[in-house]
Design a protein that fits this description.
single chain, mainly alpha, 2 domains, 0% strand
Length: 109
């Protein structure tokens, strides 16, 4: 998306998501400030997180996130947005960053 990011992830360790977001934030800020010779804050505020407790909610989140570029009129097909997990989940593209969720893959069975 042009001004925000949705990340749907499952931590492997306690505090894993917090640590990931802290590291990601530091790296992005460092890159952006160095590349564009900028100072000051980069983010508007802290990231927001929500616990996903049900399978139906998880699938709804996948649907919402993967169709966002279409709603924003950035692409006409979810597979056309190169930053989408749809390429991994929906069409089987291999990725070192993203693993297709077993529940998502079970839809086709």
């Amino acid at each position: 998306m042009t001004n925000y990011v949705h990340i749907l992830c499952t931590p492997h360790i306690v505090q894993g998501i917090s640590q990931m977001m802290q590291s990601l934030g530091r790296q992005c800020v460092r890159y952006f400030k160095y590349t564009y010779k900028r100072t000051g804050t980069l983010w508007e505020g802290r990231y927001k997180s929500s616990l996903v407790e049900s399978e139906s909610y998880l699938l709804e989140l996948y649907r919402y996130i993967e169709l966002n570029p279409i709603r924003a009129k950035m692409v006409t097909e979810p597979a056309d947005y190169k930053w989408s997990s749809y390429q991994i989940n929906g069409i089987g593209k291999q990725s070192e960053l993203c693993t297709a969720h077993p529940l998502y893959l079970a839809i086709n069975r």
